[in-house]
Amino acid sequence: MLQKFSDTLTAVADGICGYPLFITLICGGLFLFFYSRMVSLRHLPDALRALRIKQSAGKGEISSAQALASVVAATVGMGNIAGVAIALVMGGPGAIFWMWVSALVGMSTKFHEGVLAIKYRSFDAAGRPYGGPMHIIRNGLSQRWRPMAALFAVAGMFGTLCIMNANQLTEAAVSTVGTFTEISSPALLRFVIGVVIATVVTVVVIGGVKRIASVASVLVPFMVGAYFLMVLYMILTHLDGVPAVFASIFREAFSLKAGWGALAGVAIIGARRAALVNDAGVGTASIMHGTSSNREPVREGLVAMLGPAIDSGFVCTLTAVAVLLCGEIPEGEGVKGLSVAMNAFGNAIPGGEYLLMAIVTCFAMSSMFSYSFYGQRCAHYLFGERGAAIYVRVFILTLVVFAVISLDIAVGLCDLFYALMAFPTMLTLILLRSKVREETDRYFGTECEKPVEESEEKTEELITSR
Predict the structure, then answer these.
(1) How far is residue 155's CA from residue 424's CA, in Å, rounded to a whole number?
(2) Is the dihedral of CA 216, 58, 422, 202 positive or negative?
(3) Cα(165)–Cα(156) distance, rounded to whole angstroms?
(4) Are the CB atoms for 117 and 289 separated by under 8 Å?
């Protein structure tokens, strides 16, 4: 009976999280990309400038830069390594080009999320800000849309549980230990690793969003920088092969040797992997950006749209270059993406597979920090402060539980709730797109659309004029 339920749940989750979710995120993102007049292309330099602007004191708990670091901490994870390797196995080098295209589309989606997160956030009696799709829906749409806000909050509580992260990290750690010594009790080792993971997460998350942001601000540059240095070493030691790598990406992205159907398949594989990596349109980013002390919606949107550029653009490209330069892309089903990446790093760097394991650990742990906060804010929306405190304890407990037990049912539920987060978020972004355009036109100037050369003083004038 339980197995039948598991099979049914998995089939439903696979169906909803397949093409329906892909179409929602990619097609909805394309619509927002063109409606915003290609904001992720036209205003990328302004986004980089916005990141450097010193923020004035405002109602918020963290800075825009810390919010971005926390969002990237959540999205840069297993998918940037294992997911890219899987895309290469399934779609070849050409899939990477379509990952870049999807990242560009995701940037415009994240821009809309960032703008609305500030424009429609809520504040409690103590002046603390609360963001996310549930607050955007409540404050930006009419009363009849309130049930959709509750739907997102419920889905967010379950969809942000780090079940796969805890399990995959534990599995990788057990495999690494197994290469050095014989494991007499794998179940006990998994339990111990789960307790260690939960302990580390507890130390970070009990400090609230400020501690999460502080840790992310240090951890994200370190782990992305370390990963970049590893790939840079691989590039420098295999310099002759670099032109061929990028040539194969562009050549096979538009290859018609297997027909239009094959080309469409490669494009879908690459775009789908990128969409699942950067979380654009899922709504979690607006929860974090809504806590920013920034009072200017568009500036927060500009900072927010850098997220997909970092994870789906930069980090995923590093993985692709490493695998194409030094790895082997096997054929057939059942290939584990992480093993493909680890083999590539092991071939190029002495002990590279263990260095990669250390990076993967940082990636997985950073995701847990931010996702605990996302789920906690969803619980707060539904049940208040007491419910949020209980949720954090449950979240930490699941890290131990799912490090040990089978995941079939749990993963199916999480995948299903993940999709149920994306559907109301994308619908909300589309319904409120005109509000984003109004804010954007005001910020940049309605007539000539020329970027404002912002200084701190000019930013203050813009805020005051509102």
Answers:
(1) 10
(2) positive
(3) 16
(4) yes
